[in-house]
Design brief:
single chain; alpha+beta; Nucleotidyltransferase, domain 5; two-stranded antiparallel sheet; 11 helices; 12 strands; 19% strand; globular
Length: 380
């Protein structure tokens, strides 16, 4: 365990550190991340993005934290936890929280926004979240608490009047419309040819899978639900399962359409552009799960699980800062390549016997390492 900085650490020391990390250092970690994000964004955080993901465990036993629930990756039988992440523009970290695996994700939105608004004295930032956090309760609470928001809409679940207005429109690429929705809200709907092609492709692929499963006799009553493309299944008689092609064909009317619910006064394009920044938080989850290896989690004690998440959050904040530095310097190095290069960058510390003075010598570096080192010196 002495590979880095020649510090000899025993495994038991690491576990003891995890035991206290979340309770004693989480606030400090988040404070550093927030202050850095605020500085990078010019001193003001006026927009925040919130989303959740699930992290499953290779275990069969549940406890107070690890619970079975709706899994975003289809692992519905495995215990899991929810990770809620709050970021600013460009995906710079603000804070996070860990929730029980069976919680309804919509119930986490307002508490976490209010927590960090109070903690960092944010002045009612515009809240942006995807349709998974859309509910009447959330909308009502955001309105009553004085927040402005942009939330992904489920346009197929809107009122008959709104759906008719959407389908009666002559849609062309890039076109958008505003429709009043209640006293304070409006729904903005936009159309994209590229999104339409993607929707059609995904729908056809889903239908093909259903047809193959039906032909092989793999579908039962348990498959009749609204998960994914199972919505195209129906029962005829008592036991006969068929594909509802009328429902499948009706869905093509919605190809390419995307809705946004907002109570802001922003123009339609501004609403759409701001919402599209959510891809940064989706990318944050991908980075955490792949590059930063937040999964798998082998711990079973809550404080160690939370400590593991805290380390991953710290790593993500560092990742984003390195990414920013490389982009600012127009470096040809990717973040992944830069991280790999640091694994073989060494420094020798020498204490002179007579003067007792310590000097440091860098080992010879490759061109890539030298270029990276110059960027690091400039920023840090």
């Amino acid at each position: 365990m002495s590979r880095f900085l020649n510090v000899d650490l025993q495994v038991d020391e690491i576990y003891r550190f995890l035991d206290k990390l979340n309770d004693q250092l989480k606030d400090q970690v988040e404070r550093i991340a927030f202050e850095h994000t605020k500085r990078v964004l010019g001193g003001t955080i006026s927009i925040v993005f919130y989303d959740m993901t699930t992290l499953h465990f290779e275990a069969s036993d549940e406890d107070d934290l690890r619970r079975t629930g709706f899994s975003k990756v289809g692992r519905h039988r495995d215990p899991q936890i929810y990770l809620g992440l709050l970021v600013g523009l460009d995906g710079f970290a603000i804070g996070y929280d860990v929730f029980e695996g069976n919680i309804f994700e919509g119930h986490t939105l307002l508490p976490i926004i209010q927590k960090y608004e109070e903690k960092y004295h944010l002045n009612k930032p515009v809240v942006i979240a995807d349709a998974g956090l859309l509910s009447k309760d959330n909308i009502s609470m955001l309105d009553s608490s004085g927040y402005k928001y942009i939330i992904g809409a489920r346009i197929k679940n809107e009122s008959k009047h709104i759906k008719e207005k959407i389908l009666d429109e002559e849609w062309i690429d890039g076109h958008s419309i505003n429709i009043k929705r209640g006293k304070r809200q409006r729904i903005i709907v936009s159309y994209s040819d590229r999104r339409a092609m993607k929707d059609m492709h995904n729908r056809q692929r889903g239908l093909t899978r259903l047809e193959k499963s039906l032909k092989r006799g793999r579908l039962t009553k348990a498959n009749i639900n609204n998960r994914g493309y199972n919505k195209y299944l129906k029962l005829t008689g008592d036991v006969q399962i068929e594909i509802d092609y009328d429902k499948y064909n009706a869905d093509q009317l919605w190809d390419g359409l995307k809705g946004y619910i907002t109570n802001t006064s922003l123009r339609a394009k501004e609403v759409i552009d701001n919402y599209n920044n959510l891809w940064h938080i989706e990318r944050a989850f991908r980075i955490s799960k792949t590059d930063l290896k937040i999964r798998p989690i082998y711990h079973r004690l809550r404080n160690r699980i939370e400590g593991h998440i805290c380390i991953s959050f710290s790593a993500y904040a560092i990742y984003k800062e390195l990414e920013r530095a490389l982009k600012t310097e127009k470096s040809y190095l990717s973040v992944k390549r830069a991280a790999d290069l640091t694994h073989n960058m060494y420094q020798l510390n020498v204490r002179l016997p007579q003067s007792k003075h310590q000097e440091s010598f860098l080992f010879r570096m490759s061109r890539e390492q030298s270029d990276l080192y110059q960027i690091i010196l400039k920023y840090y």
